[in-house]
Batch of 2 targets.
Target 1
Amino acid sequence: MELLVFLILFPALAALLFCILPNSRLRDTIVVVVSAIIIVATLYLFVVFAGAGTVYFDINSGMISQIMTGLEVIISAGLLYLAAKYRQYLIAGLVVVQLGVVLYAESLIHETAALNNLFIDPFSIIMAMIIGIIGSLICIYSVGYMRDYHAHHDDMPDKRRWFFALLFVFLAAMYGVVFSNNLFWLFFFWEVTTLCSFLLIGYSWDEQARKNAFWALLLNLTGGLGFAATFVWIGLTDPSGSLIMMDTLIAAGPAVAMIPAALIGFAGLTKAAQMPFSSWLVGAMVAPTPVSALLHSSTMVKAGVYVIVRFAPIYDASMVGYIISLVGGVTFLLASGIAISQSNAKKVLAYSTIANLGLVVACAGIGTYAAVWAAILLIIFHAVAKSLLFLSVGTVEHKIGSRDIEDMTGLVGRLPTLGLMMIIGIAGMFLAPFGMLISKWAALLAFIDAQYGFILILLLAFGSAVTVFFWTKWLGKLVAVAWKPEPMEVKISSHEYTALVPLTVLMVAVCIGFPLLSSELVVPYVFSIYGMAATLGQANTIIMVMMVFMVLVMPLSLFHFRKDRKILPHYVGGRPSTPDMHFKGSIGVQRPVALGNYYLADYFGEQRLSHIGNGLCIAFIALMLIMLLMGVII
Amino acid sequence: MSYITKSPWIIHYDGSSCNGCDIEVLACLTPLYDLERFGIVNTGNPKHADVFLITGGINEQSRAVVKNTYEQMPDPKVVVAIGICAATGGVFRECYNIMGGVDKVIPVDVYVPGCAARPESIIDGVVSALGILEEKRAKMAEKGGKKQ
Amino acid sequence: MITEIIFAIGFIIFAPFIGALIGGIDRKVTARMQGRVGPPVLQPLYDVFKLFEKEKAVVRNEVNFYIFSYLIFVVFTGALFFSGSDILLVIFALTLAHVFLILGAYAAVSPYSHIGAERELLQLMAVEPMLILAATGFYMATGSFAVKDIALWPEPIFMTIPLIFVGIVYVLTIKLRKSPFDLATSHHAHQELVKGLTTEFAGPTLGMVEIAHLYETVFFLGIVWLFFASMPWVGLLVVIIVYFIEILVDNTTTRVRWQVMLRSAWLVALVAGAVNLGVLALM
């Protein structure tokens, strides 16, 4: 129990320290040390609890709950002040309503039964590892990145001390989310992540950042309202407060828990940036890249899918669950489509995150054991691959001065190490035999046996085709090395390398070690809930691992192909061309060849597809809420 | 045994001809003559080609293109100059912009005379070019063997 | 286990020859349709052997690595299929192979091969949904993803998923690089953008692409056969008829724009998938 409390409190206390420390080498060192401690503690957590199943911790909630309520009031007051200052009256209204609802609900519930406020099970361990290891690596990375960032933006006030404080508060809150069994506690940490993301998105506080930050806040507060409504429902149906414990609520089954599960699912959809709420995550890319990495891989959106996956057993074979699945499936297809039309690397990553979360949500909404297994694998692979991609894009952006994919032409020639890391990350996102593909496969298996699953399969089939398109053309840009380029002066800060190298290793390791990962962590969790678990067949696993090795060995063939080849110039319609891609144009003028990718904006334009997606998903969610209301009334 | 004579792929370039010979070259691919019987395929790309068919004389504009196209063909390769213009410049020989026949720019292996060259003689020219192609291949293989 | 390995090795050894024979007959039939005599039946083999007699010339050394990987993974895909493995795995391995081919074309950094690569990507995107839906259809018909179980299913699967079969035949035209869908690169006499993504591949590099194509032909016809696996000879007949139709279509249509290809392939996949799988799911 101490370990759990430590993991929640330690980053929070460290954050207090960072509020005080000025910019200095000392602060940088302490960031690294704190991150290292978090990683070690998380690994220790794994060692201690890996085989232990579900463990509950009896913490007296009285005092702590009061502190949390107090903090919530303070946070609300702060948000009200900001909202009033920038005339965001809608947000002010939401904050007031939410606080009112929560306080009203708390007055309804006498928390006599609240005992096991903290818990840990294999799923929590997986989430803790993602938060602890990937999140901490991102913190280490930001030390180097933010130094560069402020060197590039010297007109901006240097608020780095708040930045680091917020990062660690974020991690603390995430630990809180995944360890809390008391829904009040979970909600408190949930709102803290909303607050942190708001402040981090608005870090530069210029007009654009402010606008996007408030937008993110607005959407997440809307979701929070759904969460708060859950408490009212619990307060009205069961004043004793036993249902406020997540395990009791889920164990009560769909007959009791369907309404709270749907409301919390709604909150999860907003946080996981599903359509129609996806725009906040796209807007969040105005933040410094480590923030994007954090939001996309290990925190924030993962909190959203975490609660949905938690409540998956309730959704099993229900209409509500199916609607949530449809929202996820539609989001997967359309967000992937939008990614085709984007050339801004961070935007492509943002839409691919939204898409993959859609797939997780689709699996969780189906709620069968196979689906939950697939969902958790997706969460793991996505976290690793996406953090690696964001961080390498961030570093590349600082080196080449652009985050446009078109400007990354021939990156493996110019920045070989970074280019290779990016390739590994991208391969991990969509290619057989690497991570995400295994999960997509698992998702397909899960959908097939579900009722009306064929609609989800259609969404998945088209969506994954689209995914192949936009990732491959990005890969193509990276490998298009026109001529022996002079390697750029590579001076990447050691902090950035400290994060990138382990993430790359981790990516390869989870790809090779996924059978182990599945059998040690994912299967025990799924088994503990459903009494059965899905796995890939042994023969298939062997073939997959074989393919991984083939892909890893194949580059050795380069040694053979390097020998004794005649290098011919490129064919440019017979015009004489030079190896650096110039050709002799008309009247003898040397002209450069510029190659651009297809973006198919007429078909996959952002506007067009997000209109369709938002419309569909709003209709789905409205349908779900109407069904709930009818359920309440009847 | 050599397969290059069984599957010679051609590329066809019009230097600055009057198009008479070009039409005849394409006529070879029609059902009447059916060059594909011999495995001959008309490619559009020097990198895939073994036989380079040129019609017309060489002028200042086409010189670089002919040279580039020739260089882009991987060995072994042969060049067939089709028509009298490709051989010597023909009736255009005295024009201010004509340099002369194809052999002013690249080595030519077979000359097919005529104005315009008849499909039969073009086929005949290509077939004799195949003999030269085979010789070149044998020489190349020998050289490659020596190296190892 | 031994039988599976024998089938896989059998595929690896014999598929190129069978593929070459099919290709040769294809060219012969095409020639006859055009009133010509046509090349010898073994012409595709001569072509491949010739390409390996040529000089090893490349634009960039790396290109060969990608193309070699493409070849290896195409062979791997086919071997997986004919040894009766999971059909989804087969499809994913095929996608991986094609991604390598596309990367090879990108790595050549040439305008022609670049356009070819983009178009090949479009073709990949057009075909992928139908393949996944076909795998789903096989599963819904037989309860298994393993090609072995599907092949041993006592009834013709075609009867359960006829629309999926139509869809597969439709995308087969794209995969066999036949007109009207030979956008990325085309086979024998057709030319598009000086042969699209293979523009920069010369000699042995092109030879590897050709060999991979021979393997692919056999693999795809294997998928067609799978719909009739319970009646092997009928299956063979259907394969012959389907391939004949492909040749006929190849010779009677002109190349379309990518918009038409993508839209029509997706529409076919959507209708075939939604109707056929929907009926199966609701029954």
Target 2
Amino acid sequence: MKSLKRRKFNDRAAHWVITLGGAATVFVVLVLFFFIFLEVYPLLKGAKVSKENTYVLHGKAVSTGVDDHQEVAFAMYNDGGIEFVSLSDGEILKRYDIASLNGSSIASVSRDRDRLVLGTNNGRIVTVYINFSESFDNNKRTVLPEISEAETVLVNNEGKGINYIASRGDESATVTAVHTEDGRLMLISSEVERALFGEGERKEIRKDITGLIVQHSHGQSSLKSYEDKITPPAFSLAKGGNGGGQEKHERGGTHAVSKSIIHASGQKGGVGITSMALDLFMENLYVGTSSGEIFHINMQDRENPFLAEKIRVSDKAVTALGFLLGDISLVVGDQNGGVNVWMQVRDAVSPSGWTLKKVHTLTSHNAPVIAVAPSTRDKGFVTAATDGTIHLNHATSEQTLLNLETKSIPATLTFSPKANGILAADFHGHLFQWNISNPHPEITLKTLFGPVWYEGYEKPEFIWQSTGGTDDFEPKLSLVPLIFGTIKGTIYALIIAVPISILAALYTSQFLHNSFKIIKPVIEIMAALPSVILGFLAGLWLAPLLERIFPAIMIMPFFILLFIVIALLIWKILPVFGKGRHRHGVEALFLIPFIIGAVFVSIRLGGVYESFLLDGDYRAWFANVLGLEYDQRNSVLVGIAMGFAVIPLIFTISEDAMSNVPNSLRSASLALGATPWQTAVRIILPTASPGIFSAIMIGFGRAVGETMIVLMATGNTPIMDWNLFNGFRALSANIAVEIPEAPFGGTLYRVLFLAALLLFITTFIINTFAEMVRHRMKLRYSKL
Amino acid sequence: MKKFIRTGNPYIWLTAGTLTICLLMICGLVVLIMVNGFGIFWPREVARITLYDGTVALGEIAKRESIPHQKDSFRTKLKVGNRDVSGLDFTWFDDTDIVSREYPVDVLVFERREWGNMYGFLKGLRQDDDVKPLSLEGLMPLLKESQNLYKKIRYIEKKEIGDISYRMEKSRLALKRLMLLEPSEKVQKKVSAVRTSMDNQEKTYREKEDTLTALYTKAREREVVVLLADGREKIMPVFQIIRVFAPNKMGFFAKMGFYIAKFWEFIWGEPREANTEGGVFPAIFGTVMMVLIMSIAVVPLGVLTAVYLKEYASDSFIARLVRISVSNLAGVPSIVFGVFGLGFFIYFIGGGIDKLFFPGALPTPTFGTGGILWASLTLALMTVPVVVVATEEGLSAVPISIREGSYALGATKIETLWKVVLPQATPGILTGTILAMARAAGEVAPLMITGVVKLAPSLPIDSHFPFIHLERKFMHLGFHIYDVGFQSPNVEAAIPMVYSTTLVLLFTVLVLNLTAIVVRNKLKKWYNTGSM
């Protein structure tokens, strides 16, 4: 015999263990909620600077760059020197001098990943490739810079400097646009003609396209006015970003790189070009002018470039242009500090069918924007202004994620290849470097729940399209189409389920004969039916069947009603029938052959109905008369299948509520002379209404979260319309489809967790509410 | 009449109609699955269809239906098989094009390891460039022989080579772990030991592979020539054939025997041809094992919660909180549990276990990826409410007088609970467990993201230490239905298979539910007589 003490201790311990075990359920729900929330939380956080460094340079940087791992950076000086700086200790690892420069200096740079095209102050174009290769030795990575020079091209013989340059190229072709000191705009393209036999031949085309711009300019007067308006110090500094800089900053002062834009534009026949951008396809050149206009020059035919469009984008000069990843969106920075994203949008009015439209507006700088650097990972970009501010932006979400400050003027700007760092250099020999963490720039409340103007769309829209075929794909993560899909499926399911289940519950609880109460567990078992079975039957059996006999389905309810009436009449006419043991309460069984008959007759007559009323082809009729497309896997199908899943749930709970209505009420009503039906409708239904309500709520919760049926019975197309005959994509199915492919910790992964959180919260509220209503009802019954 | 309407009787009929619709829907569904699921193993006769344009086709008639928008016209869907020759399993024929339809007696159906069924006539055995005539009876011993060969090959591939690669993988990991250590003489010694054993394994592996190659060459030696419907001849190794039969010759009992054999293969066999043929044994095994692990996890939690609610908690705040939690766990969509399982169990806990105990295998995850343990735990969370509700019911059924009797004899609360109340409530707990199992067996959505795969290379239980591999991925009946029916490249040919899998799943779920109901009713009777 154990001692009393021991037994007491055991009792106490058991008490605690059981209490803790009971509380564990609460704990599970809390963990469920908080864990999902923790996974979502990083979406709400912005970008962060994790490291900030300044290094010393030895000259005026005209371009900078960095390797994939942000270990080695390079700075190119205007004298053609390239220095590689170790970002761990600031040590100069290597210096290289571009040989083909021959003593001239660099006036402008166009950078296209590893290809740098330099415009010199004596009118030549030098192409340099800077690569970082990695080698592994004893599991230690070393980064080796590699430089190679390509051939030099002479633009003009007068030796005029190149103010602006924009160049793109691949193995077979290169296109370079230059704006020279004397105000001319030249297009130089070379292409290797593919010959059938032997080596390809290099073909070069040179075009002076100054005329395209001058003819369409506002004329000299407006250019003059621009000269008057601009504030020389600020702007010539800005200019320095690409060219050389202002006299007073020049240390040696031996060779003036380029004068200033004012000088160039003042010349006869010159134009106030202030920026240029050439797209990846080497077909569209955008030229920004001092009067705030953008000239879009189409050069699909390199022999005959033409002006496709001229559009005013700002009331001040366009000081910076740059393409975002994918070369569809154009970032426009102006002299006011405004940063906007423009792109070609379909337009019926414009002759070419396309026009440049402003799609995103970002936070303005307080000074002229001088540089734009796109990310090579997403639609993000960095802008710098003459007041030393650098903004990290994201185009799709229209947010400015970071606001960096330098004490001087950033002349050149680079976004690191993995989009995790920013590099900027000024003229005073400073190289600024920031390591940033910017995991989810594309997510804001607006991109999740609001219309967003995506690349290639005509207007802001709600789109869900998480992945695309190419690297430059713009993820479209609007949850609205999915929420819409969930609501659509739920509503159609409830439209079918609620009337059937509540009426059936009413009959079962009030009128069904006691000897048939076995029907209730049968329907309860229906609730245990795995939804994958329903989904499979809906998708593979019912969908093609429904497509064949849809007209029959349309007339089926009427025939069922008709046959019920016929059954009723037969019942009345043949009084012998059922006069035996079950006078009432066997209607449901009596009706079985009639309803089967009704289904059979309506299928037979479906074809007749179709040929007389729907012009012989119901799909064509829907398309012509109602304007609705019929998909095989559509919302009606989901309504039926999901209704099937929800019916037993609503049935069971509301049947419970109705049969638990105290018998005294029922008896009182009947005793006062009310018919059974009157009792049912006027007494039972109102009394049980909280229970019925909570049954519907629980059914709603089930339909909202149902996954497999929606996944299998709809086409899973995230579209938004109420059309009965097309599919949709629900939140739950979307999670099931996409989460196996979502990389851990990525934006898509977290957005899918957010979808799960939404489902959780919705069902939590619904269930808690339903539970409370039911609790109240129980209390009320016990008082009756 | 008006009076009759006013009594509301017609409306009662309307409500009766809705109940009838519900009943018909569920019965129709069960009948549909039964007919389609049981029907597919029955050998169907093979028809030869000749068209007016001279085309001859051989195959099973799969379906005949009216052509939409054309009066009194029908078309026939023929399963022509021979996927390697025609590229398609099914062909439609308009009945107006058909000249004749006959059932040749000696037509054979070849079930093959690849490319589905073949329908044709046996011409003979190929010998060099000649064809030696062969009867169906003559083919049987050859078939037996090749099946034995197949078994042998499978044994070597699965068991022997499987063992070797398992050991090699172990050695590789051991080597990797040793490499992470500080280099010392002891470590060096171990490294060289592992290396030698690896070399040995490599050698045995090569030997086994040579035997395999020899066996495969032997397997390809014997070939039969089959005459196809269009007069072409097809040469096929006997090894390719799994089963051959002449359906048009079979009597009822022969067909019955065939049916049983096919059904046996379906339940106990492994899937073939991207799961569209063969059996579903791994899926059944995976489902059962997952459900068992789940019940081990769910029963303690569910019973504790129920005991707390019923025996310990007064109507306190915490008790209400627990109640709300339970009802919410029941209402939260299953996919949310799946997401939680993925993030919490797999990435958080599994990833943590990997870092602590399996650093050698990284970056290949061991527990940090979907597996049967995580799937079971996820479902356990989901089914807690089922156990709680049923256990509570069971506890309420235990009369207060019994408890009071126990207290009166001096027992403490826990003693009463443990020795008196819980044993009496066992049927309730059992009901809850069975219902939870039924729920888990049918659930697919959370499993899809926590460890179910379409084809698992090995079962979670095998002969390698520690015998039960909880980190392995597994197959599941419900997912099998989804995968074969919706992700398979040849859905049309796979549908019969999906129906029979559905039948197995439906059967499992219904039997579990019925058992639960029976247990619950027993419980009621027991107390009605036992408590007095």
